[in-house]
Write a structure and sequence with these properties.
single chain, alpha/beta, 7-stranded mixed sheet, Aspartate Aminotransferase, domain 1, 3-stranded antiparallel sheet, 2 domains, globular, Aspartate Aminotransferase, domain 2
Length: about 375
Amino acid sequence: MDNSATTRVFPEVAELMNRIYLEEYGNPSSMHHKGVEAENEIRKAKDTLSGILKCQPKNLVFTSCGSESDNFALIGCARANARSGRHLITTRIEHPAVLETMKYLESEGFEVTYLPVDEMGLVSAEEVADAVRDDTIIVSIMHTNNEIGAVEPIAEIGKAIKEKNPHTLFHVDAVQAFGKAEIIPKKMHIDLLAASGHKIHSPKGVGLLYIADGVKIHNIIFGGGQQGGLRSGTENVAGIAGMAMAAGMLYGNLQSDTDKLYAMKEHLVDRVTKLRDVHVNGPQGRDGAPNIISISIKGVRAEVLLHALEEKKVYVSSGSACASNRPHLSETLQAIGTGRDYMDSTIRVSTSVMNTMEDIDACADALREAVPMLRKYSRT
């Protein structure tokens, strides 16, 4: 129940990757037959993924993860477009891959505007457009928040940005959205889009960056000049093929999978909110992500509850797994105005298409058993 942190690889994906590891193991830069075999796997993967995103294969660059994709997009484009301006815009609830990169760019002399969000974690297109200036070169806004499941109005934001300043680049961190929502970058005015393999039932160690035609970007990894000189390093052929297969499987069943995820989400919310002093953060029902449920439980520390659930083989997160091993108050929960009583009492349950309603009931049963017991021994 921690699928926003990572997902189990589809068996079909593992089988494909195993075949590539053992048979089509060549370096795609090699001129001989084994190299050509590997190169063909990358070409097939690009065809699949470009079909999903309704773009050209040349618009896709493979990376090691979503964080690298975000870093590449922001640092590469900030440096390439610095003569046009040094102003960047983002929100207070972005993933650390964006927020920490923005802090780094500030140290390089760029100015960053951090937009607030409302109590649902949303920023409006009007608020974004109002912040865009003549010297704004990049706006970076995530599609789906990884902690509370807020889904931003990306198409409206993209349109508003381009109307205010056609030269401003729009970067979208879609790591939590790709595979769960239809995303067409060109239609949504997106110039740069990041995605990750291990969030969609393919392996860790592979990511994707969509780069629209005409975008000026500098590479940030130097070496052998692979992928048109944009991202040096031998490509992770098996991972790339696995990511494409998993994406194809998810988008082939997108509507039915989405309906299933929303049904499980609604069932869990219905059961856990019967407990007293329980608050669900972020947009409810189909206004939010289908797979992310942020639950604040007054009187119970999140990390204590996490381990109590772990004993029952129910695995959840005490926030974003990308940083939850370092105790801190969630930037997202602070940004949406979560009360102090709930701030360090929040867990995230995140489902996947491989979960069942029985899993949801097991999670709800474990919570209904653990919470009263832990409250009894709470120091609050």
